[in-house]
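User: Can you fold this complex?
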Amino acid sequence: MKPFTFSNRVLGAAVGVLAVVYLYLAFTLEEFTAVSVPVQPATLPKWLGAVLLVLAAVLFFQKQEDTGEQAGSDGDGDEASKTGGGAPARPAAARPALGRLADPRHELALFAASIGLYIALLEPLGFLISTTAYIAATTWYLGYRRHWANALVAVGVSAVLYFAMSDFLRVALPTGPLPF
Amino acid sequence: METLQQMGAGFGVAFTPENLLFVFIGVLAGTVIGILPGLGPMSAIALMIPIAFGMDPTTAIIMLAGVYYGAIFGGSTSSILLNAPGVAGTVATSFDGYPMARKGAAGKALAIAAIASFTGGTIGVVLLMLIAPALSSFAVSFGPADYFALMVLGLTAVVTLGGRNITKGLIAAVVGVMVSLVGIDSQTATLRFTFGMPELYEGVKFLIVALGLFALAEVFSMLARRGAGGADGAMTSLRLNRRDLGRIAGPTGRGSILGFFTGVLPGAGATVASFLSYSMEKRIAKDGDTFGSGNPKGVAAPEAGNNAAAVGSFVPMLTLGVPGSGTTAILLGALLVLGVTPGPMMLSDRPEMFWGLVASMYVGNIVLLVLNLPLIPLFAKVLKTPRAVLIPLVVVFCVVGVYGLSFSVFDLWLLLGFGVVGYLMRQNGFPAAPMILGLILGSMMERSMRQALQISYGDWTTFVTSPYSAALLGLTAIVLVWPLVKRLRSGPKAPAAGASPDGAQKEEDTASTP
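Assistant: Here's the predicted assembly.
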């Protein structure tokens, strides 16, 4: 089962809604009247919105095709393993499965939420603490069992990144409660 | 003859120990910075400018040029190994480079990238030397209408390259252009689509969208696949056999020449060059249908193209004083600070600088090859990192890249948003590349469109009365309609082809190679 894959009907409708909202916003843009200009700020947006609406309609009525997991993206993923030929499919047991939840959709939502939490805590806690905690927690959650290596990577990567950025490149990352 | 003499003098400049050392430093620094996802040639050069300040201007520009092509090569390394192109110019490399790496041929992909880059750079330098003057006079005759048409063609070419579903590709491209229009309108200072948020006034930065759609979305699907189907880290040797070399020779050569000429046109830099040479090879290759699933030609063509274009973009900067790309614009700024004004007079006033730079490009390309081939196994070690460790690390690199650029937590939320959008897009067969290109070209397109209409007093026929523009738009129409015509011509088979995208794709691509 492929999580979050929708039919062309649903996709076409979603893109259509986006196009209508965009067109509405484009038509509410103010005309520029100070100097006469051949292209108003809204000219291109109106065209874009109209084109998107047409494309949405075309997609809506298009016959369903098999959208492989990454069909259009960069043609990697499924195709790579399909056409891999030489590389035999590995037995699932040979590789520790990532994550813990049965439903991949929940797993993905949780993952997105964890990134959100990391972003939210970046400035209050500072880069060093939040990044160390994020790497350690995610790596542990995903099922990596060598806890010492995990801790080492989490602390090491955060520290190296932090000091390389702040001392060498002079990019000030948030310090948080730590004195440096 | 005169050119040869001057070239000899140029090598005299390039081969002084000091300049050799700085070419080496520049290429090394550029490669290392370019490998980091998110840091591209622009940031690399910007970071190195303070170091260049105390130097002799000739040495400084030689070093900065080394940083430039080093960074482009470094960017392709992260495209191939992580599918995280930090640089727009190497997005096309990831299409086939990353699948190759996932199939365990990372070493081979990197070696091909190194060789194609080297060839592209070298051919570019030869062309730069031979026909720079003539070319720049041609590029000067390109008006805004022609640029607009060129960008439309570039965008359409990328959509048809996306393959399977042209409708979805076009939707992605249109949305990309839409995203590029967010912010303060450069001509009228009107706020567009900012929803009252000051953070959006300056628009959505390319880096955020690129890292979100590619790197972060990749992490999401890695997780959804539960780590299956990933690269198993089996590093094959770097060695290319004669058959491999034979296969990539054609794409490399064509990509180099196409890339150089694209690079000369201001605005159409390494990015457009790499996409154009990729789509051209996909069309003319007999095995075009395997592009996107790890075809070595799909690595060679864009790599040769973007390196040749990097060299090509020096042509307008050095001969006209007009930078051909964002990166050469930064270089131009650095030169002005050093007290050198590039332009038509540079060739006569500072010949040692012009030819010294050209000669050092040869040297830099050799350094690039010598430096990178031995280091490839080291780069490829990245692939052996366990997925559970790699996933949070990629997230952290994305966050650092974005935060270090803007110091804004808002941009991080945007990054997460584009990551989610990117994942949904790939789950539903929407290609990400046209969206990225639309984002890059969108604002430039609008500017050219405005300039063209300003010149013609609002007369829209200007886009078809200019011969270049008309030809380019005509080509665009052909590129768009061709797949449809193919499908119609195949008659009764059409529904079947429509039902199985694989078949349709194959048919389209093989049919266009007579």
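The beta strands of chain B are 183-184, 191-192. Residues 2-134+141-236+331-479 of chain B form one domain.
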